[in-house]
Amino acid sequence: xxxxxxxxxxxxxxxxxxxxxxxxxxxxxxxxxxxxxxxxxxxxxxxxxxx
Amino acid sequence: xxxxxxxxxxxxxxxxxxxxxxxxxxxxxxxxxxxxxxxxxxxxxxxxxxxxxxxxxxxxxxxxxxxxxxxxxxxxxxxxxxxxxxxxxxxxxxxxxxxxxxxxxxxxxxxxxxxxxxxxxxxxxxxxxxxxxxxxxxxxxxxxxxxxxxxxxxxxxxxxxxxxxxxxxxxxxxxxxxxxxxxxxxxxxxxxxxxxxxxxxxxxxxxxxxxxxxxxxxxxxxxxxxxxxxxxxxxxxxxxxxxxxxxxxxxxxxxxxxxxxxxxxxxxxxxxxxxxxxxxxxxxxxxxxxxxxxxxxxxxxxxxxxxxxxxxxxxxxxxxxxxxxxxxxxxxxxxxxxxxxxxxxxxxxxxxxxxxxxxxxxxxxxxxxxxxxxxxxxxxxxxxxxxxxxxxxxxxxxxxxxxxxxxxxxxxxxxxxxxxxxxxxxxxxxxxxxxxxxxxxxxxxx
Amino acid sequence: xxxxxxxxxxxxxxxxxxxxxxxxxxxxxxxxxxxxxxxxxxxxxxxxxxxxxxxxxxxxxxxxxxxxxxxxxxxxxxxxxxxxxxxxxxxxxxxxxxxxxxxxxxxxxxxxxxxxxxxxxxxxxxxxxxxxxxxxxxxxxxxxxxxxxxxxxxxxxxxxxxxxxxxxxxxxxxxxxxxxxxxxxxxxxxxxxxxxxxxxxxxxxxxxxxxxxxxxxxxxxxxxxxxxxxxxxxxxxxxxxxxxxxxxxx
Lengths: 51, 446, 250
Description:
The complex is a heterotrimer.
Chain A: E1 4-6, E2 10-13, E3 19-20, H1 22-32, E4 38-45
Chain B: E1 2-8, E2 13-19, E3 26-27, H1 38-48, E4 51-52, E5 88-92, E6 104-110, E7 113-120, H2 128-134, H3 138-147, H4 153-167, H5 174-202, H6 206-227, H7 247-271, H8 275-281, H9 289-295, H10 300-303, H11 311-314, H12 320-323, H13 335-358, E8 377-384, E9 389-396, E10 402-408, H14 411-421, H15 430-437, H16 441-445
Parallel strand pairs in B: 3-4
Antiparallel strand pairs in B: 1-2, 5-6, 6-7, 8-9, 9-10
Helix pairs in contact in B: 3-4, 4-5, 5-6, 5-13, 5-15, 6-7, 7-13, 13-15
Chain C: H1 2-11, E1 32-34, H2 41-47, E2 53-54, E3 59-61, H3 70-74, E4 79-81, E5 96-98, H4 114-120, E6 124-130, H5 136-144, E7 156-158, E8 167-171, H6 176-188, E9 194-198, H7 200-204, E10 226-228, H8 235-247
Parallel strand pairs in C: 6-7, 6-8, 8-9, 9-10
Antiparallel strand pairs in C: 1-4, 2-3, 3-5
Helix pairs in contact in C: 5-8
């Protein structure tokens, strides 16, 4: 599992957010949702040129 | 770049990860594994043109002005069809019969019974996320946050100012946190009461409609005597408070609540024991726990079906940690559950407000000024509006300028729950089902 | 039955007896006044989120104003907001408040079409179209008909179909995705018909003014019969504005 853990209303440097290969990214986030304690609050695209 | 934020409701954490992809790539979808991602991937497809191998239905989300395929328009959208001589279609909207926002509902019916409902939204799209970047002044951005959904001013503006303050490394004084918490709970009381009225209207229960309707008036008028606006616009500001709370306002608020509660309880007692009302609400518009957890609804639309999902409890902000919020949970997932949640939440909000008023934090007259936002940073802010969870995310560049702003209203998740709720119901029960969710069109369409 | 009567008794009288003289509390921001005196005008122009303030002479355009009150907080001796909620007019120019001007905003009788008072003075049915409205104006327009404001007593009502309507009330900045539908709704309304713009977003686009997601061409060649400023419009502003429009004889 590779992710940056933050709290609500917390700022984190962009570089602290791990960049995964898409397959791992998919496997990680979809497997988290197997447990009721997790839910997705935001999943979106960020246009190129940022980061 | 794709950015995914998963909330861990047990530990109160948010897990952020990302992946770099090319827009011309065709990818395997998250949705094929977990349906809860369906809407997010539809949005990604719509905005960036990323195709998925195994997404069940890449239905357009809102036809925004920045969509990848300019040719597809809201006017030529091919609705889902079932070929049959037995079935017929009923189109409702986009302009509705009442004074409400536009959205199109396409029913496929078997006689009076709804077989399938397809909802198409996007009519309200105003380009808010892009405007957050284009408008450079903080006041402009706050005004935008206030306009995301005019019925959820406290919810969205609190999300925005909390996000902005964390980006600026600013710790909000207790009086600011007090204002936001109080405004959120008052907004909940006001809109829930208005919704109870509207639910009564939709089952033609005139007394409930009039009494709940008029009971909303003193609550929003209280906002007006606090900040000059019945919807709390201009009340919530980052690092600022033009309308400091004081003893006089507290007295006024208690007086209002003391007058509100007996009338409200009396009306509720009559309404929720009235067989002719209950028969329209119970077992109407059912969404099961399994469906709810599959599609990942939030807020009331999760709590109606035994799922405890409430930011106030799991990711508390402002003064919520001191309130130790216990979410109100119902179990039947029907219109009655969604109605009953409102009553319980109104009572709970009133008790929270009474507790908040016991200790009014003094206004900080020597407030620190906001600094510039941090450079190359990512921030996330969650609040529990009256509908449910609201999420704002922002990214800044090397100069600390906003380069990305993402808003997710509760309704983004929840519209599908309405479509599922009305299946196999009589079409005449659609209005009351719809009202019992009371989802936002503009919050969805942004 | 007894319980129902008790409820009715406990509600008492909720309606506002005379909406034309009703008052709102002190902090309400209605018609602003720009007082004489020196001030850094540029700073005020710069401050306004929607470009409603312009300089020399200093003026505020209520068609653009979001009534946030920030200008009055920044320069309380220069700008103050009164509780005067009767700010609707049919003359776009009259929404611009100029320095030193403390007169009530009134309708321009020359712009009221003759058929309005002859057809609509006793009964006006309206179709509402939300075209990007944020649902606050829509709530307030609904409130116009509730037991407190009771607009129905004047024969003014919102109806379900444009075919039954005498005019349309537009809220919201008119999004591109609603533009064609607004036109269809307008065309479906029988003549003579009126157009009312309710709320700052509808009048000028408000904070969304320069968004590429809008398409305001519908308004290009139309006469607007009533501008009702507000963010959102106050029910009293709307009701009084409409009453002025339909009851004034040329």
